């Protein structure tokens, strides 16, 4: 196990969290699609109308200064069937720190939190080609819950504007 500890993110971590988000996007080949930046991370993780929470993994040994090497970003959600649940949006550990138990520490923090909030389950999405991630989740006995009968929809910003302009409302 690397000399890494896991804690709740603080506002002064925003720059590092943004850096790790970009590394994650680069790893996934999506860097060109990233629209978030330090300002959106500050607003959405620490502002008055925050929408996410985050755990970070911090190491001090290599440089002598604390440095983030991983993060797990989550939000709370709710279904009529099961009530509240924890949705994991991002889980990422820097390449040099992988296979040292850091991802498991972040995951354990999220599991303990979900249990303490009385959640029936946690949920997240993974690309089918992401064998590294899938192997990780299987270690915790996670079950794939895709069904042929359920579809995921996305309404983008332009479509929302167009649709709104067609609907007469107050
Ligand atoms: C997935 C990820 C977060 C795991 O973090 P990690 O710190 O390496 O995880 P751990 O060291 O705690 O590994 C726990 C277990 O996961 C599995 N695992 C992790 N990486 C693996 C790999 N490359 N190949 C096979 N199994 C792997 C193993 O079962 C491992 O246990 P073991 O080392 O005792 O065999 C990390 O690999 C990562 O950041 N990957 C890139 C981003 C990503 O894919 N995120 C998930 C998106 S859905």
Can you put this structure into words, describing what you see?
- The chain is of the alpha+beta class.
- It has one domain: Gcn5-related N-acetyltransferase (GNAT) (Aminopeptidase), CATH 3.40.630.
- The chain is 34% helix and 23% strand.
- The protein has 5 helices and 5 strands, in the order βααβββαβαα.
- Strands 1-2-3-4-5 form a 5-stranded mixed β-sheet, sandwiched between helices.
- Strand 3 and strand 4 form a beta hairpin.
- Helix 1 packs across helix 2.
- The N and C termini lie far apart (58 Å).
- Coenzyme A (COA) binds next to strand 4, helix 3 and helix 4.
Give the ligands present. Answer: coenzyme A
Termini separation comes to 58 Å
Q: Runs with pLDDT <50, length 5+?
A: none
Shape: globular
CATH homology group: Gcn5-related N-acetyltransferase (GNAT)
Major β-sheet annotation: 5 strands, mixed
Give the overall pLDDT as a whole number. Answer: 94
Would you identify the CATH architecture? 3-Layer(aba) Sandwich
Helix proportion range:
25-40%
- Main-sheet strand order equals 1-2-3-4-5
- Please state the structural category: alpha+beta
- Examine the coordinates and then state which fold CATH places here, giving the name of the CATH topology: Aminopeptidase
Question: At the first level of CATH, what is the class?
Answer: Alpha Beta
**Count, helices:** 5
Helix-strand sequence: EHHEEEHEHH
Based on the structure, what is the oligomeric state of the protein chains?
single chain
């Amino acid at each position: 196990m690397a000399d890494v500890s896991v804690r709740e993110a603080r506002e002064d971590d925003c720059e590092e969290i943004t850096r790790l988000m970009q590394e994650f996007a680069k790893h996934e080949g999506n860097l060109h699609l990233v629209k978030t930046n330090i300002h959106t991370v500050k607003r959405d993780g620490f502002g008055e109308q925050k929408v996410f929470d985050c755990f970070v993994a911090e190491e001090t040994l290599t440089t002598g200064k604390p440095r983030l090497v991983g993060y797990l970003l989550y939000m709370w959600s709710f279904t009529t069937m099961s009530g509240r649940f924890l949705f994991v949006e991002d889980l990422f550990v820097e390449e040099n720190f992988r296979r040292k138990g850091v991802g498991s520490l972040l995951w354990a923090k999220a599991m303990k939190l979900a249990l303490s909030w009385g959640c029936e389950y946690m949920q997240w999405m993974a690309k089918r080609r992401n064998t590294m991630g899938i192997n990780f989740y299987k270690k915790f006995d996670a079950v794939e819950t895709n069904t042929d009968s359920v579809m995921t929809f996305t309404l983008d910003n332009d479509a929302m504007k167009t649709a709104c302009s067609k609907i007469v409302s107050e």
